[in-house]
Amino acid sequence: MTSGEGAVSQADTLGPAEARWLSDLEIACRGDGLEIVFQPIVDTARGTIVGYESLCRFPGFVEKNPEVWFATARRLGKSARLEAMALRLALDMRPLLPPNCFLTLNVSPELLATQEIRSLWGEQGNLGGLIIELTEQSRIESYVDLEPDLDRLRSAGALIAVDDAGAGYAGLRHLLALKPALIKIDRELVQGVDRDEAKRALIRMLGMFASQVDAWLLAEGVETVEELDVLASLGIPLVQGYVLARPAPAWASLDVDVAHRLASRSISSPKNTLRNIIEPAKAELTVTAALSAFQAHPSLEHVVLLEEHNRPVALLGATEARLGVVSPGMRVNLDTPVSQALQRAITRPESGRFQPLLVTDNAGRFVGIARLERLITALSDQFSAEN
Hints:
- The protein is of the alpha/beta class.
- The chain is 38% helix and 18% strand.
- It has two domains: 3-266, EAL domain (TIM Barrel, Alpha-Beta Barrel); 274-386, CBS-domain, CATH 3.10.580.10.
- InterPro entries: CBS_dom, Cyclic-di-GMP_PDE-like, EAL_dom, EAL_sf.
């Protein structure tokens, strides 16, 4: 037992609230009142589920918040027992895991050396197909102390994952010291990535780092299709979040529309086409609805005006929506070469020359916008690669 697992000897030495907690923890550590749910992890290239993250829930108690439970367990010296029980319940489902799927399990780093956790791995034998995610519940005091247990896990076939990549210096230290096989992007970076160029740039950097150290990159907390589209366009291989599927008893399936949305992106095409640089944009069917969107979201730059068959009509700014001015935007097919699209764009009248292009599929339906900045960057990258 580690120093963080000091036992509470007598319930009557505690206050009433903590005594109740101690009683509830004893029940939970026996596996009563707990439920394990599984949230799908999705391959953005194929639009299929490739893994599940196991998560512990507490439906049999008044307090439902898992973070409160695990924090209280640490304070009262029950964290190793509680985490071991949560892991045991998840591992009981391992034989039923769908084919070609991995299972991720959350473990506090300081508990890896406890007898409860070590015994659990020993009972499993081969740990192939398991990814052990080191959580951020407490600070890692010594990476050197973790190495023997991490080496044993790897030798048994498990992979190691770290959470909250990009969340400050501590997150970067984790990446350098732990050399994980799976890197989970901090959900703060994922939130609103479709509206934040700086977040996209940082995620690109993490992607470059992951490729250099032979690690997978997983974006968690994806809650909108706009975020999903941007992450897929950035080449993030794995995603997880409510827009894809919520945590549920084994084994949740992927939303059909979202699966189709991802799969439709995987159609092979040359790297120098608009397909690879498009980004989502708010779309509405009327100018009135567009104006309401600007009023509800002051930071919104553009709204695409669509006709009833989802074909783009115009790109509106807040001023145009307020005045009811509708000028046709430039529509371009998503398989148009970047160089050709840029040549067409600069032939427009000076007043609208630098507006984003309206990108359509082969049926003329709106699929996203292409900003001039990205056209120029893509063309520059292509030139650098060829020279």
